[in-house]
Amino acid sequence: MPSDVAREPVAPRPHTGRRRNPAVREAVLKSAADLLAGPDGLTVSMDAIAQAAGVSKHTIYRWWPSKGAVLLEALVERAQQETSIPRTGTLATDVESFLVATFDAVERVAPLFRGLMAEALRDSKAAEGMREFVAARRQGLRALLTHGVEQGELPPETDLELMMDQIYGLMWYHLLITHTPLTEELAVHLARTLIRSAA
Amino acid sequence: MPSDVAREPVAPRPHTGRRRNPAVREAVLKSAADLLAGPDGLTVSMDAIAQAAGVSKHTIYRWWPSKGAVLLEALVERAQQETSIPRTGTLATDVESFLVATFDAVERVAPLFRGLMAEALRDSKAAEGMREFVAARRQGLRALLTHGVEQGELPPETDLELMMDQIYGLMWYHLLITHTPLTEELAVHLARTLIRSAA
Amino acid sequence: MPSDVAREPVAPRPHTGRRRNPAVREAVLKSAADLLAGPDGLTVSMDAIAQAAGVSKHTIYRWWPSKGAVLLEALVERAQQETSIPRTGTLATDVESFLVATFDAVERVAPLFRGLMAEALRDSKAAEGMREFVAARRQGLRALLTHGVEQGELPPETDLELMMDQIYGLMWYHLLITHTPLTEELAVHLARTLIRSAA
Amino acid sequence: MPSDVAREPVAPRPHTGRRRNPAVREAVLKSAADLLAGPDGLTVSMDAIAQAAGVSKHTIYRWWPSKGAVLLEALVERAQQETSIPRTGTLATDVESFLVATFDAVERVAPLFRGLMAEALRDSKAAEGMREFVAARRQGLRALLTHGVEQGELPPETDLELMMDQIYGLMWYHLLITHTPLTEELAVHLARTLIRSAA
DNA sequence: AGCTAATCGAGACGGTACGTCCAGTCTTCTA
DNA sequence: TAGAAGACTGGACGTACCGTCTCGATTAGCT
């Protein structure tokens, strides 16, 4: 009724029409992640995602600008099982458990990482999104290390960025190139080696 | 002499028919590399390669099983400007110059690496080929480090594989994710940090 | 009325989604017919049809199973300018005008007939379709002749199928082999000869 | 020596070098005919013919200008089992046995006719060759009928060309369109009908 | 016996078409 | 207005075939 609208000019139109169905978002992201994890994971098509989600392709494109964006969001969603930074006491144990948790989480969504990278290499938007995601993750580790420097557990001249490059570099290297699993042993070994030699 | 023939019955006829035109191979690899290095490098099509090389698609598929195989060989060819391992004296300087040379060579064909990775993520054959290429490259560095252990410049318990993972991991990380250049400074810095902390 | 629906449970949902664009069908058939009629009519490619129609090849293959099917339908469409059977009075004049009309119509789309035959000889589906088309056309003449027998203008023992074989055989023979035009004179001459000798 | 050439301009060079291997011709024509008669008869490739004949494609193209030419010659060769025109006495019986013999011979090489027509529709050279072949065959029947006119067995005003069009037209019609066999019954029936009504 | 010239098998090659597949956009109808 | 169904363009995919070409081996006649 127009008269009603006239009477409430402050919130002119809180919403008109059918609301966005939150189930759509979930279904799409779940299907994307599942398909990516399945066989033929690196060549998931939008048609396949739409079909698996019981959603029309048009609807997907209404909410995400491209396939890369869908995959990125699917990855972010899955990786949300938060790698809560521990702060148990010493830097050595903190970094160690951070890496163990990270490797474990990443390993569980490894196909998503690979699928997203495949997309990011063709679609610069997806690449940008992935960079942001990676940078955000890096921030957690950086906080940990910076704290270590402040506590005197690491010398002040330590190049934290280089250290992080080595950590995340190794991780992606296993993920994308050698395809070897990111085990707990590897995490522990890497953490100890880095901290010991830096200290 | 019939007796000779009887002695060598294995190779009755080494080759018949028109020989493979070496210009084709060169033209295809050159076109592939050039297109990969150009804009839209991540989405090079076989049609484009064929057209640029002045070669029919059929001919390409006669010699290479897939697009990935062409790109891989193009990369290998370009990377052939051999990073000759120096052995100038101390391990520290040797590793340093190895990394400087490697980073420089890789940086110059960075788009090829990215394009090939894009292919490897969809085509498992290409992925396998790339793993082989990477493993071969790793061998050079491994020889250098093993020599260092033998000379007592590195303690015998040093985990060389982990060290190489950190080096090549960082390299690919910059190449694929951050897209930051692989500078000489970075190479030197990385080499010194690793050797110092291991020694 | 729900009761009506209950009585007709076969069509639960008449149609969903975007409708087939009728312009596509027309454009494809028109382009196919035009290309077939042009020079190089015997070697029309799907790419050429798609390009000429401003339609993607994919869309053509969505609606027609093969090239032969497209050409067949193009021919049927063009031949639709109906050779209405006259029934002016005597059998002699009726058959005469039928043949004149048929030859005239066929002559105008002769290249389509040839192009379709070229396809039918490679594609058994197209051959089957063409046989159906030919059989349908034959029905018109059969009705005319049967009527003539009933009216006593032809003896009851006349082999109508043989007569039609001679008529259509001659037509195709000119069309495919001698490439001589199907003139009005030929039609008249053939009609008179056949009717006179049968009567 | 140029002077030698100048001295003998009439028979410059009778022959030098290796002679043409007659087995090649036979093998090619046999393979072509056999493949055409087999399944997938309408889509015989030159590669297939060459392979079946144990002959290189190059050799085929040395002696025949195109695929159509090969098929044409294969047909001519196979149809050489000569339909010797009988002249047993009356026109009626002569034409009858001519048609029976012709239909029988044609039926046995029907796939060749169809394969050649497929080629003739794309290759105007092949079409021309086929027209010549058809015209030559027609000459036999024409001689028979002309003789009948001279003997008074047919009225002088009979249109022999039209009669032949009807005969050969029907034959091709069955061959190419209806794909029904050219039986002896059909030959007899056609011959009697035509002669009776013309006389 | 050696030279010369043609034949031939094997197969590489360019060009062109095939029929399939996917990303992203647009259209129609239902809720 | 959200959403499902699905038509549509554009462009790449890998395969097939035609007719041409190149290579080396073979063979026949002439010197």
Structure characterization notes:
Chain A is an all-alpha fold. Chain A has two domains: 2-65, Orthogonal Bundle (Arc Repressor Mutant, subunit A), CATH 1.10.10.60; 78-198, Tetracycline Repressor, domain 2, CATH 1.10.357. Chain A has helices at 2-7, 22-37, 46-53, 57-63, 67-78, 91-108, 110-120, 124-150, 160-178, 184-198. In chain A, α2 (22-37) packs across α3, α5 packs parallel to α8 and α7 crosses α8 (124-150). The longest helix of chain A has 27 residues, at 124-150. Chain A is elongated and about 55 Å long. Mean pLDDT of chain A is 86; it is low at 1-16. Chains A, B, C, D: Keywords: DNA-binding, Transcription, Transcription regulation. Chains A, B, C, D: Residues 45-64 bind DNA. Chains A, B, C, D: InterPro entries: Homeodomain-like_sf (IPR009057), HTH-type_TetR-like_transc_reg (IPR050109), HTH_TetR (IPR001647), Tet_transcr_reg_TetR-rel_C_sf (IPR036271), TetR_C (IPR011075).
Short description:
Chains A, B, C, D: Residues 1-22 are annotated as: Disordered. Helices cover 70% and strands 0% of the residues of chain A. The first copy, chain A, is mainly alpha-helical.
Task: Write the topology of this structure.
The structure is a homotetramer of 199-residue chains.
Chain A: H1 2-7, H2 22-37, H3 46-53, H4 57-63, H5 67-78, H6 91-108, H7 110-120, H8 124-150, H9 160-178, H10 184-198
Chain B binds a DNA duplex (31 and 31 nucleotides) through helix 3 and helix 4.
